[in-house]
């Protein structure tokens, strides 16, 4: 009736054991990570970003990247990904036979320097070295553009700059692109405009949207992207993740809240929401704190309650 | 670029001292309520639902309705509203010279019985008595349709039933309609469809959308309604409010998060977000607990941070 052209099917890409766990105050035991990933493999998600092959000094929580990648069960149909910050990480990810490597740099030079200690040119040079290393392997390469919707240091990033970087990624032979709202600054109009501009310029190049819910706009941004035909979304079980600049603020969009919204809208995800909710409800025990995800607390819209006893007695 | 026809201007209707405070565990002193309403009057919101003239036994937190309505400063241009559950409440609200009375019933008969202890016919009969009592006064009458997007006992409510009730409200001479997602069950596709159907049937009858963020979809639902031209939204400072069926779940959409999203999108609200954020940040002291609103914690998207000292030293 509203005429909104939502996609019929959306692909859910789980990032909790990478983006979620990397900033947790305590180390989640390797066996628990493996068990969580194996359980996520059976929920119907399309892709799991398992870990990041990053320096254990930089991210102690993911020091077990190689062990996790080796030990998880690979379910056919699920794509297993690792984030790789540099050639050394890429080599480790290739040695672990992951399906996909996720390369990342920030479109904001200031953020890239702060986060990766690299200039944009140095990052792109690193990408080309990774592409060369992956040649002849079966690994696909995704390129993430961090701070695509704004940088906490520089502010808004012009769409032309973001699209120009995407073009550089594709020139470097990456297979697909993620536009990442690293610190939750995107708004729905900006999302609709940037997704439309991406589609106009790059046609069918696979595009993922990676949103954070830092300012409450996460699912609204999903809706805006859906309205422009986007059909791949990163999300984090329980809404784990977060931003060092916003203490107390929430993190990535919650996988279970995302799947719940899409399924309520009649958009298929292929995900078993019941299983996902069970896993989300187990996170507080694993982590020792509450989670931002809301459907795990409130239940699904369709979970009905008995009418008050007084009414039932009267009827 | 996305071609989404968002309204250029949206009206923000604050409900925190009614919908927010009514279920708080502790009574907020009358003087604090008055001070909060007076401060909200200076933020630029279009309307404030000040209180509810309800039985103090049913809602002890609002037992001071008459005193609050009498003592607040009436700022020209702001519409001051009270919720009225029945003729006695309406008479009290009229005696307090409020600008608008908000009449409410649930489209779900089960919810109406549970919440108001009235059948739908009894509720409509009550509405007609209130219309008669208000005749000749300057008070406008708004009719709220609770559980318009779903009932926690009955589940989904057919759009035809909701629109039929809106028609009955207008036949009874109410001036405007609110579609209320009382327990946060609405999804964006449903919202877009129902708003479009309302517009098709009732043309320019003033329509308010009242959303809760119980399952994280609050601002996505706003976006869906905006896309169909809706331009009046209820919201609660700090995201206060809630649902007795979802312990730990969040309440109404947060006024400051709503205003932040709209202003970031370039949709004018007339609201001073800085003042609103100051008031939201004062709520934890007033109430003794944290608030669900996220921009009060994370800051606005445009609040930039200094680059790390190491970079500044190097540059």
Automatic annotation (TrEMBL), chains A, B:
Listed GO biological process terms: ketone body biosynthetic process; L-leucine catabolic process
SUPFAM superfamilies in alphabetical order: Aldolase
Residues covered by the Pyruvate carboxyltransferase domain: 10-277
Gene Ontology terms for molecular function: hydroxymethylglutaryl-CoA lyase activity; metal ion binding
Enzyme class: lyase
InterPro entries in alphabetical order: Aldolase_TIM, HMGL, PYR_CT
EC assignment: 4.1.3.4
Keywords: Lyase, Metal-binding
Pfam families per record: HMGL-like
Keyword Metal-binding on entry: yes
Family, per entry: Belongs to the HMG-CoA lyase family.
PANTHER family linked to this entry: HYDROXYMETHYLGLUTARYL-COA LYASE
Protein name: Hydroxymethylglutaryl-CoA lyase
UniProt organism field: Ancylobacter tetraedralis
């Amino acid at each position: 009736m509203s005429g909104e052209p939502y996609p019929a099917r959306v692909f859910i890409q789980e990032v909790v054991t990478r983006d979620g766990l990397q900033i947790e105050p305590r180390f989640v035991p390797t066996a628990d990570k493996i068990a969580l990933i194996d359980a996520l493999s059976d929920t119907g998600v399309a892709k799991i970003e398992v870990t990041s092959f990053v320096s254990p000094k930089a991210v102690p929580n993911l020091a077990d990247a190689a062990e996790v990648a080796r030990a998880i069960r690979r379910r056919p149909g699920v794509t297993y990904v690792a984030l790789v910050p540099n050639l050394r990480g890429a080599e480790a990810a290739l040695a672990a036979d992951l399906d996909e490597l996720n390369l990342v740099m920030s479109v904001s030079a200031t953020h890239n320097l702060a986060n990766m200690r690299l200039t944009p040119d140095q990052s792109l040079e690193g990408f080309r070295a990774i592409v060369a290393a992956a040649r002849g392997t079966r690994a696909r390469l995704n390129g993430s553009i961090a701070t695509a919707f704004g940088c906490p240091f520089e502010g808004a990033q012009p769409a032309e700059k973001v699209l120009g970087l995407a073009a550089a990624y594709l020139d470097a032979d990456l297979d697909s692109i993620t536009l990442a709202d690293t610190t939750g600054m995107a708004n729905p109009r900006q999302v609709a405009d940037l997704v439309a501009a991406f589609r106009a310029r790059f046609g069918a190049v696979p595009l993922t949207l990676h949103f954070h819910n830092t300012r409450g706009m996460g699912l609204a941004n999903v809706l805006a992207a859906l309205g422009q035909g986007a059909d791949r979304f990163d999300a984090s079980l329980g809404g784990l993740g977060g931003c060092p600049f916003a203490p107390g603020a929430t993190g990535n969009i919650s996988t279970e809240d995302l799947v719940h919204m899409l399924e309520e809208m009649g958009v298929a995800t292929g995900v078993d929401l019941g299983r996902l909710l069970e896993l989300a409800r187990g996170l507080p025990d694993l982590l020792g704190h509450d989670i931002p995800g809301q459907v795990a607390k409130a239940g699904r819209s369709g979970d009905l309650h008995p009418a008050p006893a007084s009414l039932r007695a009267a009827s």
